[in-house]
Design goal:
Its main location: membrane. Pfam families: Cellulose_synt, Glycos_transf_2, PilZ. It is an enzyme of class 2 (transferase). One of its GO terms (molecular function) is cellulose synthase (UDP-forming) activity. This is Cellulose synthase catalytic subunit [UDP-forming]. This protein has 743 residues and is an alpha+beta fold. The protein has 4 domains: 54 residues; 259 residues, no CATH class; 215 residues, Spore Coat Polysaccharide Biosynthesis Protein SpsA, Chain A (Alpha-Beta Complex); 74 residues, Beta Barrel (Thrombin, subunit H). Helices cover 52% and strands 12% of the residues. Strands 3-2-1-4-8-6-9 form a 7-stranded mixed β-sheet, sandwiched between helices. Strands 14-15-16-19-18-17 form a 6-stranded antiparallel β-barrel. Strand 17 and strand 18 form a beta hairpin. Helix 7 crosses helix 22 and helix 15 packs across helix 19. The longest helix has 31 residues.
Length: 743
């Protein structure tokens, strides 16, 4: 508590002084008095909270109470420090729990079976959302924000580390980059052993490993997929620690020096996880053009949730970019094979055994995001199925070995993937009234307003304040809406029969030749969008000539429907696959280089970006390069790098694209060390995006949704005309070829 109080803003110094005085006085009391005081204070606080949550208020009193609380939240939100966040959480919970108490006690007296079906369906979805909200507050209220622990021992005493790079069907060009970067990790010679774990049993991979001196490990079966691959490697290696990188995750040179200090300080530490950082856009970022301007789907987890888990000693293993202590891993039977999310299940087993897990929020590796929406959905289906399997077979609420905080963190991670059905309920709930006049709230429209709005506003304001750098407002609804339909069936089946389903590898790399609209994947969103548009039209018609009481109810449902249209139309926009003509994404970087030309002249310039196969150059004034001109590039450092042979691919407006050619393996290794393996390559952009501004986020989502509706209308019109003319080869503004045919 003292450490927490030290983080209070300077303006509250008097509060800290008062608390210190009281604590000093109480510490001199007899033990039984102190225990009695704790119990008494707890009971008084519980009664006070219970009174606030259940106090019956009429319309005007509830409106006044809500207005005062929300005004206080707006003021508190401007304050810095964790005390302000905790106060916002408290006010949010008061508003939400008051709403739910009123909802359960005053609004469920339904008059017909139709009202009951829609009404109870909605209230169950709301209970789920409230439970996830409360658990989320517990997870993120006070992130640990762990710092690196410096290695105190001399390098000769540092432990041996086996680097595992499991691969199955990835291209050699992708895996090669990871292997070369793993070899470049700064660690004493002889204490770093890099192993390629090839479950594809490919001869070219074996030859490559022999050429660069990397151990090649394979097996005669693919049992248990990635988990089985890793466990097989455990049998034939003996390093004290294991660092694991997926076949597309490129580690920096500083990876082990940043992570290993905590293992040497804490002998009970079994796992340390670092963020999954992606240097290419995922389908949301690519198709909606939000790369680096809106936090992606995974940033909330790695930027905030994992840090909060760390506070409760419940950091998850995420399958890559992590270090595990071999002895502790073997004590729980190796990597878990019972579910398809072997990583999270392994961490759960380690925590149950009493071992510590940790999280360090410093990107020390970067990988490729899924390129297409279909691949992204397939990956999330596997995660959802695996979490449901763990929930069913090894539920964190039960069994020994976990404290309360760990149980909540693991339970919330699993419950997160049950959002599909509640999300679909929220996207269709107002249609029950607009289509069928179903009274899902047995209360006046104004009473609904004064209870619902505080719950929504407080939760939105509080989550925005907590998550501002890692999740912008309204985007969570977009992410869930895109995936809800597709993960619902696998999750429900996994709850019924956990053995169903198998591990699937998410393909990475490749190109998308041109823009196209994925009609097959977008079908559920189009149906939802159409239903809400019809509901909006019906509601507007009903609004004409309605009395004041009915008009208020209609306006509430119409506002809800408009919001759903915005969210669903943005989901439709994600199905518009943007072209990707480059095999490898470029990484922005300003590196000083010297360029030598064939005539012996040279000039210095700065890179704009780089990839494994080339760089973009910002040319000095008056310098022009011709296409296919032969060059040699030297990255300026101390000492200077080798000369890398290259040729110009394009040159215009003081910008040139240069492609490397004929690099030896030694030159490829050096190039990786100077670019992808730089310690600052990924950390500089981590968590530095603009803070969330809810109204700006709403405008942005609405703009994307409106644009999607217009494009959908145009594409439908053009494709319909083509069908009527019986000319299937007629081009449309958005090619509707199926994703599986393009990728």
């Amino acid at each position: 508590m003292t450490a927490q109080l030290n983080q209070l803003p300077a303006k509250t110094w008097w509060l800290q002084e008062l608390l210190d005085t009281c604590q000093a006085s109480v510490s001199r009391w007899p033990l039984r008095w102190r225990q009695g005081l704790k119990i008494s204070v707890g009971l008084i606080a519980a009664l006070l909270v219970l009174g606030i949550l259940t106090a019956p208020l009429n319309l005007y009193s509830q409106a006044a109470f809500a207005a005062v609380c929300f005004a206080a939240s707006l003021i508190i939100r401007k304050q810095a420090g964790r005390l302000a966040i905790l106060t916002l959480i408290t006010l949010s919970l008061i508003a939400s729990l008051r709403y739910m108490y009123w909802r359960l006690s005053d609004t469920l007296n339904f008059d017909s079976w139709q009202d009951a079906v829609f009404g109870y369906g909605l209230v169950l979805a709301e209970l789920y959302a409230l439970l996830v909200l409360v658990f989320g507050y517990v997870q993120t209220a006070w992130p640990l924000q762990r710092k690196p622990q410096l290695l105190q021992q001399p390098p000769a005493e540092w432990p041996t580390v086996d680097v595992f790079i499991p691969t199955y069907n990835e291209a050699l060009g992708i895996v090669k980059l990871v292997v070369l970067a793993a070899q470049a990790i700064d660690w004493p010679e002889g204490k770093l052993r890099v192993h390629m774990l090839d479950d594809g049993r490919r001869e070219e991979f074996k030859v490559f490993c022999q050429q660069i001196g990397v151990n090649y490990i394979t097996r005669d079966n693919n049992q248990y997929a990635k988990a089985g691959n890793l466990n097989e490697a455990l049998k034939v290696t003996d390093g004290e620690f294991i660092a694991i990188f997926d076949a597309d995750h490129v580690p920096t040179r500083s990876f082990l020096q940043i992570t290993m200090g905590w293992f040497l300080k804490d002998p009970n530490l079994a796992l340390l996880q670092t963020p999954h950082f992606f240097y290419s856009p995922d389908p949301f970022e690519k198709n909606l053009d939000t790369f680096r301007s809106v936090p992606n789907e995974g940033e909330l987890f790695y930027g905030l949730v994992q840090d909060g888990n760390d506070q409760w000693n419940a950091a998850f293993f995420c399958g890559s970019c992590a270090v595990i202590r071999r002895t502790h891993l073997l004590e729980v039977g190796g990597i878990a094979t019972e579910t398809v999310t072997e990583d999270a299940h392994t961490a759960l087993k380690l925590n149950r055994r009493g071992f510590n897990t940790a999280y360090l929020a410093i990107p020390q590796a970067a990988g490729l995001a899924t390129e297409s929406l279909s691949r992204h959905i397939s990956q999330r289906i596997r995660w959802a199925r695996g979490m449901a399997q763990i929930f069913r077979t090894d539920n964190p609420l039960f069994g020994k070995g976990l404290n309360l905080g760990q149980r909540i963190c693991y339970l919330n991670a699993m419950m997160h993937f049950f959002y599909s059905l509640p999300r679909l309920v929220f996207l269709t709930a107002p249609l029950a009234y607009l289509f069928f006049d179903a009274q899902i709230f047995h209360a006046s429209a104004l009473m609904v307003t004064v209870y619902v709005l505080p719950h929504i506003f407080h939760s939105s304001l509080t989550t925005s304040s907590i998550q501002g750098r890692f999740r912008h407002s309204f985007w969570n609804e977009v992410y869930e809406s895109v995936l809800a339909w597709y993960i619902m069936r696998p999750v429900l089946l996994a709850l019924i029969s956990p053995s169903l389903g198998k591990f699937n590898v998410t393909d990475k790399g490749g190109t998308i030749e041109k823009d196209y609209f994925n009609w097959k994947l977008a079908r559920p969103y189009i149906v939802l969008l159409t239903l809400n548009m019809i509901g909006l039209a019906i509601g507007v018609v009903k609004l004409i000539g309605s009395d004041s009481a009915e008009a208020t109810t209609l306006l509430i449902n119409l506002a809800w429907t408009v919001y759903n249209i915005v969210i669903v139309s943005t989901a439709v926009a994600v199905a518009t696959e943007s072209s990707q003509v480059r095999n490898e994404p470029r990484v922005p970087a300003d590196l000083p280089v010297r360029v030598y030309r064939e005539d012996g002249t040279w000039f210095d310039c700065i890179t704009r970006d780089f990839s494994q196969n080339g760089v973009g150059l910002a040319l000095p004034p008056q310098v022009q390069l011709s296409v296919n001109e032969k060059l040699r590039l030297c990255i300026l450092r101390t000492p200077p790098s080798s000369l890398f042979p290259a040729k110009t691919v394009f040159s215009n407006d003081n910008v040139a694209g240069v492609q490397f050619e004929g690099l030896t393996l030694r030159q490829q290794s050096e190039l990786v060390r100077l670019t992808f393996s730089r310690a600052d390559t990924w950390a500089n952009t981590w968590g530095n995006g603009r803070l969330d501004a809810p109204m700006s986020a709403l405008r942005e989502v609405s703009r994307i949704g409106l644009r999607a509706i217009l494009r959908l209308f145009v594409a439908t019109l053009k494709d319909s005309q083509a069908l009527l003319r019986k000319r299937p080869d007629t081009p449309s503004p958005i090619d509707s070829t199926a994703d599986t045919q393009r990728s």
